[in-house]
From TrEMBL:
It comes from Cytobacillus spartinae. PANTHER family: OSMOPROTECTANT IMPORT ATP-BINDING PROTEIN OSMV. The keyword ATP-binding applies. InterPro entries: AAA+_ATPase (IPR003593), ABC_transporter-like_ATP-bd (IPR003439), ABC_transporter-like_CS (IPR017871), P-loop_NTPase (IPR027417). This is ABC transporter ATP-binding protein. SUPFAM superfamilies: P-loop containing nucleoside triphosphate hydrolases.
Amino acid sequence: MITFNNVTKTFEDGTVAVDNVSFTVKTGNLVTLIGPSGCGKTTTMKMINKLIPLSSGEITINGNNISNENAVELRRNIGYVIQRIGLLPHMTIEENVSLVPKLKGWKKEDYEKKVDDLLDMVGLDPHIFKKRYPLELSGGQQQRIGVIRALAGDPPIILMDEPFSALDPISREQLQDELKLIQKNIHKTIVFVTHDMDEALKIADELIVMKAGSIEQIASPRTLLENPVNDFVRSFIGEDRVRQTLINKEELQASAIMQPFFDEDSNNLFPTLFYQSSLQKVAHTMLLKEAETIIMVDENGLPKGKIEKNQLLQELAGLKRMVE
Ligand SMILES: Nc1ncnc2c1ncn2[C@@H]1O[C@H](COP(=O)(O)OP(=O)(O)O)[C@@H](O)[C@H]1O
Ligand SMILES: [Mg+2]
């Protein structure tokens, strides 16, 4: 568990990069620090492995104040991945990945096995890749090596600073998927910096939204989407996404807005839908079948209510107003 208690960082020139920030990253969680450029994400992250000293407050890891820890020792137990990974160009992939295990005094057979396992894990055949040099790999492959190098010494904590942002969109999504899969098995405590909301929502257990050195909101992806605390967070998430979330929300099932069903309605051949369908589905069916009315039915196909097109449009417009 990583805990920030009222942490502030003021640089020598007076810039307050991080302003009285408090949060906790639970063991085994992947938390993203997200916010616009210059809001203090990197500074916050670098204070965890003591690349930047803090000005006031305290940071503890599993209850131990990091100010009492030796920086080199600390970093050996905290993996670190950055955008341009800085693989050592004159070392093979195998040598790059086994760097920390060797420093930790692992036996040769142990770190060799670890390198093979890690390469396998990210879909790079060890026989082909371990003897290669970084420049003989594509950008996406190099970044995979950056990730597994950070994992190699089995650190409980991993810091990742915009690790995928220099990649093309396809490689980037692949690496996000891989990271999610890997994390399912290894349950590391990961702090991941990004300015990309799609990325954060996809990979994070929890998001810490920052603005100008302060924290605006800490929430799970779902809570953030459903309850952004203020206009800044809302606009950073994106109006479209907030609106879509509201429309998709379980509470906004057809059953929540349907009208009573009268016998005379059965004289017409209206399309039917299960009464717990989403409003989105109702709207979609109306469009598809060019219907003015949909009859909502229960699991036995018996009518429970109906929804008229005008009413649905009003409902959706109401939602739109809520987020404007
Ligand atoms: N060494 C430094 N000296 C002075 N100001 C700095 C230094 N490093 C970063 N800053 C400033 O601190 C603020 C936060 O920077 P940073 O943590 O890198 O933001 P982010 O990672 O969110 O883009 C910015 O205003 C930046 O210009
Ligand atoms: Mg940064």
